[in-house]
TrEMBL record:
Keyword Oxidoreductase carried by entry: yes
Family from the record: Belongs to the short-chain dehydrogenases/reductases (SDR) family.
CDD domains named among the record's database cross-references: SDR_c
BP GO annotations: fatty acid biosynthetic process
Protein name: NAD(P)-binding protein
PANTHER family: 3-OXOACYL-(ACYL-CARRIER-PROTEIN) REDUCTASE (AFU_ORTHOLOGUE AFUA_1G10100), SHORT-CHAIN DEHYDROGENASES/REDUCTASES FAMILY MEMBER
The UniProt record lists the keyword Oxidoreductase: yes
GO-annotated molecular function: oxidoreductase activity, acting on the CH-OH group of donors, NAD or NADP as acceptor; quinone binding
Keyword annotations: NADP, Oxidoreductase
């Protein structure tokens, strides 16, 4: 069994939502490499084998503990379920007592994007994206708050998007969700200042399943825009390391 490549996060517990693939999986890799124990959240049954495989490999490669929790961040009870299962699982492993569980790092990575022009936007899609991208992180933060450190050593990172400020065609709803997430980030930074630092990151185009198509652009500029996005699109692991 290989040990972690760095011990700077040894003994810490980190939660990553949307951990089955892309940026989330890469973040898990980086955190495990620094010695953190992990809670890997994923949503769909189709991701079960992938996420469990990632957790097993991380444990074997880095000598850390990694538990897997299936929960839908878009539901009202999903975020709370993640925290409940994390507390129970680490207690069962004998690593933490239920009444002393501490969540040191929280990465709000799970998110969805649906690109629709204004005339095709509808209430159901608005609710779908806002429930996952905005309400989900808020409810997760609410469920996790009792378990954050009390010495400002906690770290909370929200994955936002350049769409929050650049205004891409077709992303009225998605861009709005990320702007809302950034607004919550600033609020949390003040409310949680004695316990944790809170930041949002805008990674730009990253080669993930969700960004399998280029950022929408008027058809007259589609080809040139495609080349620009393809040229500057980073790999998930590059994003995670930064």
């Amino acid at each position: 069994m290989a040990q972690s490549s760095s011990n700077e996060l040894a003994g810490k517990i980190a939660l990553v939502t949307g951990a089955s693939r892309g940026i989330g999986a890469a973040i898990c890799e980086v955190l495990a490499g620094k010695g953190a124990n992990l809670i890997l959240n994923y949503t769909s049954e189709s991701s079960t084998q992938r996420t469990q495989g990632l957790a097993s490999r991380i444990q074997s490669q880095y000598g850390v503990k990694a538990i897997v929790v299936q929960a839908d961040m878009g539901t009202t009870d999903g975020p709370g379920h993640i925290i409940e299962q994390a507390v129970k699982s680490f207690a069962d492993l004998g690593l933490e007592k239920a009444d002393s569980f501490q969540l040191d790092i929280l990465i709000n990575n799970a998110g969805v994007s649906v690109n629709l022009p204004i005339e095709e936007c509808h209430a159901e899609d608005f609710a779908f994206q806002y429930n996952i991208n905005v309400r989900g992180p808020l409810l997760l933060m609410k469920a996790a708050i009792d378990y954050l450190p009390h010495d400002r050593s906690g770290r909370i990172v929200n994955l936002s998007s350049v769409s929050a400020s650049l205004g891409f065609v077709g992303q009225s709803v998605y861009g709005g969700t990320k702007a809302a997430l950034e607004a919550m980030t600033r609020t949390w930074a003040r409310e949680l200042a004695p316990r944790a630092t809170v930041n949002a990151v805008n990674p730009g185009p990253v080669a993930t399943d969700m960004v399998s198509i280029v950022i929408p652009w008027p058809s007259s500029k589609a080809n040139s825009r495609s080349m620009v996005v393809q040229r500057f699109r980073r790999l998930p692991i590059e994003c995670a390391r930064s």
